[in-house]
């Protein structure tokens, strides 16, 4: 049983309660509270309410509620590339995270085909999302990092495999 009471209402004693599920068929499952009380004669009397406390009438099969399925942890691939001098590093759309660390020079970053912006030495930038999985988030834009003579920078990324 999920809980124990002990309050007295009239001649009845609230003994225990649990949350159960009413499987009404067709994929409809309704959670409700079943409270077990002892009446004045010591007879066990179950009383059903919805989770807000209003009376509830079971219409299907009663059972313990199933735990929701946890989504599988996705496999995450990572990349790291150091660019020294002139050259380009491109991270395709759909990454979970992208990080740039500039050591020297003024490489540029263009996001989603936008105008390139110069980034100075000593700068560290990160773009990322929290949730992954089948219904999760990804970065919608591609990131293009372009180095010029004298540039030295590092680009890392992660994405679901």
Question: How would you describe this protein?
Answer:
With 161 residues, the protein is mostly beta strands. It is built from no helices and 14 strands. Strands 1, 2, 3, 4, 5 and 6 form a six-stranded antiparallel beta sheet that branches.
- Choose one word for the global shape: rod-shaped
Largest beta-sheet details: 6 strands, antiparallel
- What is the number of helical segments per DSSP (H or I, 4+ residues)? 0
Q: List the quaternary state of the chains.
A: single chain
Overall residue-averaged pLDDT value: 88
Secondary structure class reads mainly beta
Distance N terminus to C terminus? 43 Å
* Weakly predicted, low-confidence segments: none
Helical residue percent band? under 10%
Percentage of residues in DSSP E strands:
over 45%
Overall number of strands: 14
What does the radius of gyration come to?
30 Å
Secondary-structure element series: EEEEEEEEEEEEEE
Could you provide a short overview of the structure?
The chain is mostly beta strands and 161 residues long.
Properties at a glance:
161 residues, 53% strand, four-stranded antiparallel β-sheet, six-stranded antiparallel β-sheet, rod-shaped
Secondary-structure map with pairings?
Elements: E1 3-4, E2 8-9, E3 12-25, E4 28-38, E5 44-49, E6 61-64, E7 76-84, E8 87-91, E9 97-104, E10 108-111, E11 117-118, E12 124-128, E13 143-147, E14 152-160
Antiparallel strand pairs: 1-3, 2-3, 3-4, 3-6, 4-5, 7-14, 8-13, 9-12, 9-14, 10-11, 10-13
């Amino acid at each position: 049983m999920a809980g124990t009471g002990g309050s007295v209402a009239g001649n009845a004693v609230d003994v225990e309660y649990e949350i159960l599920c009413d499987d009404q068929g067709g994929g409809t499952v309704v959670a409700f509270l079943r409270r077990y009380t002892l009446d004045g004669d010591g007879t066990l009397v179950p009383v059903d309410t919805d989770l807000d406390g209003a009376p509830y009438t079971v219409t299907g099969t009663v059972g313990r509620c199933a735990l929701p399925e946890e989504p599988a942890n996705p496999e995450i691939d990572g990349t790291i590339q150091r660019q020294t001098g002139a050259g380009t590093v491109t991270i395709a759309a759909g990454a979970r995270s992208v990080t740039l660390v500039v050591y020297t020079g003024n490489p540029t970053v263009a996001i989603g085909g936008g105008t390139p912006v110069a980034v100075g030495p000593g700068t560290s930038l990160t773009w990322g999302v929290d949730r992954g999985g089948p219904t999760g988030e990804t970065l919608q834009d591609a990131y293009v990092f372009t180095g010029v003579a004298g540039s030295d920078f590092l680009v890392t990324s992660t994405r679901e495999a």
